[in-house]
Amino acid sequence: MTTHAGCLCGKVRIAIEGAPLRVRTCWCRDCQYWAAGSGTTNAMYRIEQVSITGDVRWYESVADSGNRMRRGFCPDCGTPLFTGPAEAPKFLGVRVGALDDPNRYRPTELIWTDSAPECACLDPALLHTPRQPAPIG
Fold first, then answer.
1. Domain total for the chain?
2. Is residue 67 part of a domain?
3. Quick check: helix, strand or coil at residue 18?
4. CATH number, domain containing residue 65
5. Residue 111 to residues 76, 77, 116: CA-CA distances in angstroms?
6. Sign of the alpha-carbon torsion through 31, 33, 39, 45
7. What pLDDT score was predicted for residue 11?
């Protein structure tokens, strides 16, 4: 099964083989900046599952967790596309909003919920992690 994604202007295309390891919405302050005040919903894959065509610009920073992170976006239209560790990445998060079918995957957990603004709608049926979750895999 191949999932396709890309940016608004179409200059970056993404092909993903297989299902995500996790789908979660992150409410850390960094993600709120990337999502204009909301959380970001990310489908997490092993890096070898993801193929990228086109130019991606990367921004690196240190997250509240202390981890060095990088986020990828289209340098032409600015669409946020990726999130993941900056050092020795084994996993890459693809922003669910960039999927050709954004309804394909729903989040199963919410992370950094302690950082969510008071107006955030946090689904009580999902697992809530107040800060940094345990590592994937």
1. 1
2. yes
3. coil
4. 2.170.150.70
5. 30, 28, 9
6. negative
7. 98
